[in-house]
Amino acid sequence: MEKFYNIEEQKFWDNEQNWTEGGHEWSSQFGTTENLWNKHLFDDLKEFRNKKILEIAPGHGRITQFLSILAKELIVTDLNPNCIKKTKEKLGDHVSKYFVCDGKSLPFIDDESQDLVFSYDSFVHMHKNVIDDYLSEINRVLVDGGKGIIHHSNLLGGNDESFKNWGGRSNMGLDLFKELVEKYGMIILDQKNIKISDGNDDWLGVDTITIFQKINKVSEN
Hints:
This protein is α/β, with parallel strands linked by helices. The protein has six helices and seven strands. Strand 2, helix 4 and strand 3 form a beta-alpha-beta unit. The protein is globular, with a radius of gyration of 16 Å.
């Protein structure tokens, strides 16, 4: 049976009309995007100052703006050409390279070339088969000891078509994500749950940020 991918569904984000504030509208529960970065992301990302970072699905560059200051070299890739266009208009040469991808692979990234692969607010919508393919590729492109920091859904029991679920969340719990990471020999370092609100203290659900690492190769005697 052919594998199910919800990649066509993700082309929803190519339409500018679906972005009212360049993505900052999805930072409302944190107050601002700056608060999201400073209070919830920076502590885990600061070790990658002057390192090589790949961001998958930057949207309109909401978090990319901070990564571009942090990184020695930043590459961004998105399924949606308009998202790449908007990020490039915003950040120009502050990002090293921009790529439009197929939504599940990274053929333009060299093996063992990235210190960090990061994604926020995008894997939450991806079907498990899409995530599985991406994790295989992330394992390939990370240097030994490199890390992935991925924000994903913590919803199980919904529809395979994520936009039929609350908030467009895919069927992906933290245990399933852990299983997929370990499938490729990588190890889980931390999994942090994030309560999702509408910005008015009305808690609607839970997402997870999973931090994982590519294990160093064992030296041959």
